[in-house]
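TL;DR need structure tokens for one chain.
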Amino acid sequence: MHAWPASEVPALPGKGRDLQIHDTATQGKITLDPGPVARIYVCGITPYDATHIGHAATYNAFDLVQRVWLDTKRQVHYVQNVTDVDDPLLERAQRDGHDWTELAERETALFREDMTALRMLPPQHYIGAVEAIPGIVPLVERLRDAGAAYELDGDIYFSVEADPHFGGVSHLDAEAMRLLSAERGGDPDRAGKKNPLDPMLWMAARPGEPSWDGGSLGCGRPGWHIECVAIALDHLGMGFDIQGGGSDLAFPHHEMGASHAQALTGEFPMAKAYVHAGMVALHGEKMSKSKGNLVFVSALRRAGVDPAAIRLALLSHHYRADWEWTDAVLAEAVARLERWRAAVSRPDGIPADGLVEEVREALANDLDAPAALAAVDRWVERQNATDGDDESAPGLVSRTVDALLGVAL
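>> reply
TL;DR here they are.
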């Protein structure tokens, strides 16, 4: 599976700062020092409805991570998956009378278009669940053969007791885990499981559903969590720098994935930091496909909204905050974009070296994009109020906003 084209990232004078970021597992801010190559895995879409503002906000957060690392003169090894076979996708295809593979391909293509328009930097490896199956099967077999997994009516389940660190990502109690498991794709009430929280690794073939040859596992398809583990271990290995996604993935997805990987390798941790973006609401409720209260990036683009304004709207909220999308949020972003473009269109301006460092400092501090926007706003206000004579300033501001915030002026 291919990703989308990369926009050029301008080089800035000097060097950026190491990233401090909130780690869900340690419940505090940590400083990451990745070495010459930073490694990041971000969980991708299940392509039956792409791409709403909640998705865009999540991928914007991890795009900022890449930009901060690139500004420190590191390389970035970024991996993202596509869950192109899963119950919600199959259910939507059946409901609408579509072939599930065509639905997945169409929505994945639209996602690529949206990411390109928003100038999100692409992953080096963009891997679908289906293409990952040959690498998933031997991992499930290894877990089963090691006693970390067991069979139940043809299905294979992971035993959470196989990982002594289970629970260390989300820090939830057993009852909270059970409730979220039922809400987010698990089956805690299934009879015969050793532990209600045990997640499925391999689902035996069901009538009328797609399945693949699983060798000694029999025909079937992979569970959700093992998909990301197989892709991450194959392309990044253990101990990569950031495992990222929305806050709703902390449990069960990232918790279970960490336990799968740790049981497979005997190493800890799977990722140095577990980083989670907040949820975006509409009309007082979290945007979700199940509720249908979605604002789609593609619909905004068709309505003539500049993708740079959409991106500024996302950047105006801290990535970990839960917030609400409104017409006012978008209007404010459109107005900000107009002010910024007018300010950098002048042939000269006030010096901007200090602005570069302000934006760097803000983003290195747990991706504080609102503080970065405020710094640019202050420069714009001074630019409009003062006759500067620095011919290089407008260009430097444009390159800074492009390189670090992903907004083309």
